[in-house]
Amino acid sequence: MNNKTASLDLVEFVEKNILPEYQHFDKAHSTAHVMRVVRRSLELARVTGADIDMAYVIAAYHDMGMSGPRAVHHLTSGRILASDARLKRWFTADQIKIMREAVEDHRASAAHAPRSIYGRIVAEADRDLDPDIVFTRAIQFGLDNYPQLDREGQWKRFVQHMEEKYSVNGYIKLWIPQSDNASKLKAVREVIADKAELRRVFDRIMAG
Question: What is the pTM assigned to this prediction?
Answer without folding.
Answer: 0.78
